[in-house]
Amino acid sequence: MEGAKGREGNEAADGQSFSASTAALFHGAKGVFGNCRPVSTYEKLGRIGQGAYGTVYEAIDKETKRPVALKRVILHNEKQDGFPLTSLREVALLKRIAHSNCVALLDVAVGRNRDGVFLVFEYCEHDLAHLLETVRRPFSVSEVKTVMQQLLRAVAYLHDNWIIHRDLKMSNLLYTNRGQLKLADFGLARTYGYPPRPMTPTVVTLWYRAPELLLGCESYTTAIDTWAAGCVLGELVRGEPLLPGKTPVDQLSLTCALLGTPTERIWPGMEALPALRGGTMTVPQGHQYNTLASRLPELSRAGAALLDALLTYDPAKRHTAREALAHAFFAEHPLPKEEVLMPTFPAVHAQPSAARGSGGGGGAGRRGGGWADLDRDAVSAAKKPRR
């Protein structure tokens, strides 16, 4: 692994932008950045995502007639600040990723006078958050297995390539009417190495946030993604969020009520985590038992065991994505359904601005993310006074 030590970069630079390497970065998308296709070569059909960070459009490539999603990157004071760093990181990662269960970046397009930049993605008809809002349990047990297999394959691929996604949640899981799941929104994703370098713990939407993040751990691992995958599994089975906390303290309380109160014996090193060591949080007491099986009676014994393995307090003992894929849950009846037999749903086309949510990468709630969760650095830049 080349340059694993220090590859992920300085977290403190997240709010900055630069332009020196922009042309080199976009080389390979369609020539170089200065030669990108004009956005006018795409016919916009309607808005499909409206969030705090911008807008996403459903469109048709006029040359190929292929449906695409245009994700606009908000540029503020580009001549001074350059292209937003978060978007550069996202594009750099997307150029490295080639997996059938990760959304594909097809192109980069520019607006008239180059005052707008659009990332062109393959079009997916749905995200899982929207599906669960319209159909409480859109998938049978065998279909849940297929969805989870696809998610775990995507996560395993990322981890094999030294990438942590850091924002797995329902609205970042896109679904096509060909029965394919696509992991999206790599704005918070980072490359990593060993030993893990410090990174901000305020990542992952609250409902999917691992306990080590809640307690302020900065040297976390890929295990934060598999915890989030466990939350997704529970939500698919229940038809509602498994741990819908309102604050980090509430999130930890709900986690302990579900899994039992953790101790130093079952999670070595827990008491040394910053939030406990500094006294800013305490572990809720009095929860003696793990209640996963009773809370999710729809799951078989093997299914409950898999969920328990993904929602293990100690990240060193938590199942990896590859271990989860090999779990007995996927080998018992009902077996995972073939993708071609997966259900289809009416496609979501142009929606009113409020209909597709406006959550952010670190806030509570199911919505936000996916197509609607656009550039965070650009929003920060917009709040700065112009010089």
Automatic annotation (TrEMBL):
Report if keyword Glycoprotein is assigned.
no
**May I have one GO cellular component term?**
nucleus
Which Enzyme Commission numbers does its entry carry?
2.7.11.22
Residue segments, region Disordered: 351-387
Look up keyword Membrane and say if it applies.
no
- Residues in the signal sequence: none
Q: Tell me the enzyme class.
A: transferase
Annotated Protein kinase domain residues: 42-330
Provide the alphabetized UniProt keywords. Answer: ATP-binding, Kinase, Nucleotide-binding, Serine/threonine-protein kinase, Transferase
Q: Which InterPro entries match?
A: CDK, Kinase-like_dom_sf, Prot_kinase_dom, Protein_kinase_ATP_BS, Ser/Thr_kinase_AS
- Gly residues bias: where? 357-371
Q: Which Pfam families does the record cross-reference, listed alphabetically?
A: Pkinase
What residues bind ATP, as annotated?
71
The record's catalysed reaction(s) read: L-seryl-[protein] + ATP = O-phospho-L-seryl-[protein] + ADP + H(+); L-threonyl-[protein] + ATP = O-phospho-L-threonyl-[protein] + ADP + H(+)
**SUPFAM superfamilies on file:** Protein kinase-like (PK-like) (SSF56112)
Q: Which GO terms describe its biological process?
A: regulation of mitotic cell cycle
Q: Which GO terms describe its molecular function?
A: ATP binding; cyclin-dependent protein serine/threonine kinase activity
Q: Which PANTHER family match?
A: CELL DIVISION PROTEIN KINASE (PTHR24056), CYCLIN-DEPENDENT KINASE 11A-RELATED (PTHR24056:SF107)
Complexes and interactors: May form a complex composed of at least the catalytic subunit CRK2 and a cyclin.
Q: Which family does it belong to?
A: Belongs to the protein kinase superfamily. CMGC Ser/Thr protein kinase family. CDC2/CDKX subfamily.
- Specify the protein name: Cyclin-dependent kinase 2 homolog
Q: Which organism is it from?
A: Tribonema minus
